Amino acid sequence: MTRLAQPTNATPHDGCNGLSEKRAFLMHRAWPESPPRCIETHASLIFLTRDRAFKLKKPVLLPHADMRTLAARAALCAEELRLNRALAGDTYRGLTAVVRRPNGSLCLGGAGRVVDWLVEMVRLPEAQMLDKRLVDGPEPRRDEITDFGQAMITFYRRQVAPPHAGATYFDRLTREMATDLRHLNQMRAHLGQSLSDALCQSAPVQLAAMRGAILARGKAGLVFEGHGDLRAEHVCLTRPPLAFDRVEFDHDFRLIDPHDEIAGLGLECARLGGDWIGPILAAQLAMAGFAPPPPALHRVYVVARCLTQARLAIDHLRDPNPRTPAKWAPRARNFLDMACAVMAADDAALDPARGVPRSPRHR
Question: Quick check: helix, strand or coil at residue 77?
């Protein structure tokens, strides 16, 4: 098997019969052991063997990435490897080539023409993922959370705030919220009263009012490259703890206020029953010298997160054959209810170290 740090001989078109052939090869012929478990997302196929995880990027056009050519997928694989080694170390082992042999068959590495690339990772223990621990137990311990918080603080301290980071960040938040509200309104029939007119009208107004505060945080060096997609399913409570699956397709998506990133993780933990986790991480971040945002800006961060998570949930119902369709509308409504609760909360309740106000339906 060929494992490389960087892909080579990438060409504009892979000449392969397509994704179905690669999927069949990776499911049934690539491994000497039993067939792997396959997890499918909009962007990737992840093949889980006994001790490894191999990610194959799909040749698809996404809103933020065009992965239809081998060259594009090769570049994104290399960037994913580079970025994730910063927080997950050699859990990210390298890139493995899918090769077309002279006889026309596929193999992993060896002589032939490269038709795709796999990001190869050590398979992390599923039972130690933060989302699994919150749902199935045992409940994360405080020291496990503070160890993870310290790992993120160490990572944040290595980042350099680029010029105009605040303006780039504000513009991205504005575009993202406009997309969220457009999609949510298009799916209003599934959302009922949770998508209130008051929320739709006030959220962008409150964000616009925070432009000066966000620009000021950028000038103060408090907007820089973070994880970009810090969710409970991307945190593993091993020793040391790891965060993985950083956003590789767009640098601007990784430009973030660390308190926004931690608030987003805290929001998801609260939805899964761990409402104490966000406040601990926010307080730890502040004690490390990363000044927390004022309550009004914290409100905007949390509402924006809720809208994005609601949109990502309900957008599953746009798929021709959505997976587990029954869960997406309730999840979207749950995030919208939390957004309304945050909008209605007073400033004292919006101290980042106190967490996110719960909506009546929050659980």
Answer: helix
Q: To the nearest whole percent, how much of the chain has pLDDT over 70?
A: 90
Q: Which residue has the tokens 């990027």?
A: 57
Of the candidates 235, 233, 229, 265, the residue with the CA atom closest to the CA atom of residue 249:
229
d(CA 348, CA 258): 21
231-239: average pLDDT = 97
Helix (H, G, I), strand (E, B) or coil at 360: coil
Q: Are 95 and 54 in contact (CB under 8 A)?
A: no
Render pLDDT for 265-321 as a digit per residue (tens, 0 to 9): 999 999 899 999 999 999 999 999 999 999 999 999 999 999 999 999 999 999 888
Quote the pTM value.
0.88
Whether 361 shows a pLDDT value over 80: the answer reads: no
Q: Which helix (H) or strand (E) holds 26?
A: helix 19-28
DSSP 44: E
Radius of gyration of the chain (CA): 21
195-227 confidence digits (pLDDT tens): 999 999 999 999 999 999 999 999 999 999 999
| Averaged pLDDT for residues 113-140 | 97
Handedness of CA 250, 81, 304, 168 (dihedral sign): negative
CA distance 92 to 250: 20
At residue 358, the 3 state secondary structure works out as coil
Structure tokens at 317: 């119902």
Instruction: Say if residues 56 and 118 touch (Cβ distance below 8 Å).
Output: yes
Among 186, 214, 172, 151, which residue's Cα sits nearest to residue 317? Answer: 186
Exposed, middle or buried: residue 198 (CB in 10 Å: 0-12, 13-18, 19+)?
A: exposed
Name the residue among 231, 247, 225 with its Cα closest to residue 169: 225
SS3 of the chain: helix, strand, coil, percent, to 5: 55, 15, 35
- What confidence tens digit (pLDDT) does each residue in 67-78 have? 999 999 999 999
List of residues 6+ apart from 269 with CB closer than 8 A: 130, 134, 232, 275, 277, 278
List the structure tokens of 148.
Answer: 């993870």
Confidence (pLDDT) at 354: 60
Report how far residue 320's alpha carbon sits from residue 305's, in angstroms, rounded to the nearest whole number. Answer: 26
Instruction: Report helix, strand or coil for 147.
Output: helix
